[in-house]
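Q: I'm writing up a methods section and want to include an example of the input and output format. Could you take the sequence below and give the corresponding predicted structure tokens, formatted cleanly so I can copy it straight into the document?
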Amino acid sequence: MANPPKLFTPISLGPITLPNRIMVSPMCQYSACEGNASQWHLVHLGSLAISGAGLLCLEATGVEPEGRITPGCLGLYSDANEAALDTVLKTLRATCSIPLAIQLSHAGRKGSSSAPWEGGGLIGESRGGWLPLAPSPMPQKPGEAAPREMTIADIERVVSAFAAAARRAQRLGFDVIELHMAHGYLMHQFLSPLANRRSDAYGGSLENRMRFPLEVFERVFAAAGSSMAVGVRISATDWVEGGWDVAQSITLCQKLESMGCAFLDVSTAGVSDLQKIPVGPGYQVPFAEEIKREVSIPVISVGLITQPRQAEEIVSTGKADMVALARAMLNNPRWPWTAAAELGGTVIAPKQYWRCLPAGPGTIFGEIIYGQR
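A: Here is the clean output for your methods example:
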């Protein structure tokens, strides 16, 4: 029997073993109420949970109310938030076996925004928004009000909020926590010299700019316990001269690895509207490849990975250990089935759907013989 495609071989993230190397990326839905998951989340996540992917990651989830990107973003800072997510997870667990991750985040100066379909701009306090926090009082976009510079007490509170959310995630039974240090949100703001102009122990040198994100990781790793994998999503570059770059990212990733980080999810950009991004298929893969050469933990690549053979080439040639798909999964929630049929791989599919699985060069779920009265 021929060897299976690399994309459909198992991989371990710390204590968790995934059945294949396809991750459903966290994708904001802006459909929560006071941070509570809604019926939309049941439908959205239920569809993706039976995709055959190796890991499903929930959207960016705020660790305090002001940590949400929009008023419609998920939160995990209250008992009500936890209860609402418990309902979602119990439904998913009752119907499928896909490993589940949650992305814990704080939006920082990108908080109090309207949903993308409402323009995505800053919502002022007079219109029901809140005053965002940031490492420095620098607005995200020209013309917007400046955020409030975080005090040491604010920093300590937010670190504790991340740890508390991790304990809630552990109680809920998530397999994986991904800490969001990318896309211009709070931890990325501390890392990037474009957003961090502090002169205290949390600003200036690379060591100082990494201090807050590393404190968050340390507390979350301790709170999660030995049964959960804790990984990190980073932006490998700001795509702006003088900003955060891949060399600094490598230093951060090596430090995270030494602290017990289970995986690195490598994206880019998000901290500055001056970014110049050469968008194209797989445009972020080279950053994952460069970081992978410098660490020994699994590295995940993202960014316009849409075709099965493209994904297989990335993992089979060692550019990354996994791929994470977002828009491609929304367009085709059964993308892993299609990929397995095309490449000759095997996925887990619900028996209720066996009769609709696509044909291909290999069996994608094992040999099934259908009977019909």
